[in-house]
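Hi there. Long-time user, first ticket. I'm pasting a complex I've been working with (about 677 residues overall). I'd like to know whether the download I got is complete or cut off, because the file seemed smaller than I expected. Thanks.
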Amino acid sequence: MGPARRSSPTAGAAGEEAAALARRRQGMLLASPGALYLLIFFVVPLGLISVYSFATRTSTGRTSLSGWNVESYRAIGDDIIVGIIGRSAWLATLTTVLCVVVGYPFAYYIATRPRHVRAVLLVMVMIPFWTNALVRVFAIRFLLGSNGPASALSESLGFGTFRILFTPTAVTIGMVYSFLTFMVLPLYVALERMDWSLTEAARDLYASGAKAFWKVTLPLTRSGIVAGCVLVFVPSFGSYVVPDILGGAKTLLIGSYIARQFRDARNWPLGAALSVLLIVAMLVAVALNQRSGSGAEDGGRPRGRRRGPGQGEAETVTAVAS
Amino acid sequence: MTDPVAAVEIEGVTKRFGEVVAVDNIDLAIGDGEFFALLGPSGCGKTTTLRMIAGLDLPTEGSLRIFGEEVGMAPPDRRPVNTVFQAYALFPHMTVRQNIEFGLRMRGIKNPELSQRVAEATGMVRLAGMEERRPDQLSGGQQQRVALARALVNQPKVLLLDEPLGALDLKLRQEMQQELKALQREVGITFVFVTHDQEEALAMSERIGVMSEGRLLQVGTPREIYDRPASRFVADFIGRTNILEASVESASTVRLDNGALIEAETSTPAGSRVAVSLRPERVRLQPHGTTAAEGSSLDGEVRDITYLGHAVVYEVAAGPVSIEVRVEGEVGEPFAAGDEVTVAWDRGAAAVVAD
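Hi, the file is complete. Here it is re-exported in full:
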C-alpha cells in the first residue's frame, strides 16, 4: 500500500512542491553572505550618496543635511561640467573602440592556437591584470615622459623629442593598456566557443575569408564584443587614476572632477549628484546591453535550452572571473 | 577507361599533418553523375579526402582535378563543389531562407533569380513554409534538408556529403537514404559521400571506395566489393564473413589449412598464402556426410545456435576453424548443438583474398 499511495498524483505534486521549496531555501542560504556584504558595503553607501546629492552646501563648505533641493542636479547643466562629461564619454568611447580593434585579433589568435599554447597566452594576458594598477600607470608615465624611452627612441630616429604626457593621447594609451584585459577575455571566451565548421561552410559557399569573418564569425561572437565593450566602457568612463596620473590638469575627466568635489572643492552634494548620474547612466547602458544580448547564439554551438536575456554576457563575465 | 572527363580525378594525392600521414598516395576517378561512397573506419582518411576535394584541406602532394580543371590548391570559394557538413553547420544566426541564399548572395546573384532558385531548392527538399524559421527550431531531419538545399541551390558540379546521415536515428536514416538516392537521380549531379556505415554505402552508392589507414584499398560496385573483396581487410570490413587461412593449389583450387581442398577461382600463383572469404549467408548446413553435386563442403560439429528472428546463426567447428552459417527463412531448427553436420556452398561463393 505504501508505495502505491506515494505515487498517487496529489501526493507526488505535494512532494515536488516541498522539494522546490527546499531548493529555494538552500539557494537563499548560499547567497546570503554575498547578499549581506553587498547590502552593507554597496547598497547602503549608494543610498547615502543619493541622499547627499539632495543636500545643501553651506558657505563654509560643510554639507547641511537639511533644506533638501535639486540644486546640485541643476548645476550639472553647467557648461564646464557638460564639457567634462562629454570629454569623458568621448575618451571612454575611443578607449573601447581601440580595445576592440587591438583585442579582437589578439583574442582570435589565442583562441585558434592549440590548447596548451592557449593556456600560456591567457596567463600572459592576465599577468598585467594581477599587477597593481597604480604601478602600471606610473610605468606608462615613465615610458611616455619626455625623458623616457619612447621619447629617446623618437629622438634617436631623428623625429625629435615628443611631448605626449599630460595629453588626451597619453590618457587614451593608458586606458587602453589598463582595460585591454577586460576586452580580450570575453572575446576569447566567445571565440573559443566558436564552431569553426561554420566558417568552413561559409568558405564552401563562395565567401572569401574576409566575407566569412564578416558574415559568420563576427555576428556569432557579438555577445563577447558587447560584454567586452561594457566591461571597458563603464570603468573608463568613470576612471580616475589613469587620467589623474597621465592626463594632468588639462584633461579633467568626470572621475577626477567628482573626486575633486569631495576633496578640494568640498562640494559634496555636487560630487554626489554627479556620482548618481554616472551610476544611472551605467545601469542604463548595462540594461540596454542585456536586452540586445538576448538573441545572441554564442559561437553557433547548439544548446539544450534557449538563453534568457543577458545570459550570454552573464556567462561570459563569469567565465572571465573564473 | 576512355570515358569522358571524370567529375573528380585524384592523382597521387598525399596529405600529411605534421608527422601523420592522413591520406597516402591515392588515385581515384569519379565519373560524371555518379553516386560514389568513400567508406572506411574512423581515421582512415576518408573525410580528409573529401575535405581536399572541397578545398578545406590542401593536399601535401599530388593533383586534384574537377572536370579536368586543376583545383588542388584553389581555395574552397573557387571550386564548383559544395558540401553537406557532418553536423550540417547551418548558420544559427540566420533563417532557413538566409542559410539557403548564402551561396547565391556571395556570388552576387540578385532577385528575381535568387528567390526563384531558393524557392526551387526549398521545394525540392520539401521545406516550403519553413523559410523564416531558425535552424534551432527544426528537427534533425529538417536541418539535414536545409543543409542539402543550401548546397544544391548553387548547382555545384559535385556535391560532397560528410557522414550526412550520421546524426539521424535509424528510421529517419533509412528514409533519408532513399530520399538522397532519389534526389541524386533528379538533379543528376555527382555525389561523393563519406560514411563509416558499410550498409549505407552498399545501399546507396553506385561505386564504393574502401579506405583504411590513409590508403584506398579497393574501388568497385557494391557487388564487386561484397562478392570479390580485394583484401582481407575489405572482406572483413564489409558485412560479416568467415576468413579461412589457405594456400593456392591451382588456378581453381586452394587447400585450407585444415587439409580440405576446396574450389575457388584465383589468379594468385600456386603455393602462395591466401585467405578465403566465405559469407555466412552463402553457405548452408546439410546432414553429415551428404555432399553436393558441385561446389565444396567441410565437415564439422554445431557448437552454438543464435536465434535472430529473421535468421538463425550456427557456429560450426570444422577442425581448428570455426565457421559462421546464417540460415534465413527456415521453419524450425533442423540441427541442434552437438550435431555432426556438413557445411556446403556453391562454386563461386568462396572468394580468395590476397593477404
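A couple of notes from our side: DSSP finds eight helices and 20 strands in chain B. The longest helix of chain B spans residues 170-187.
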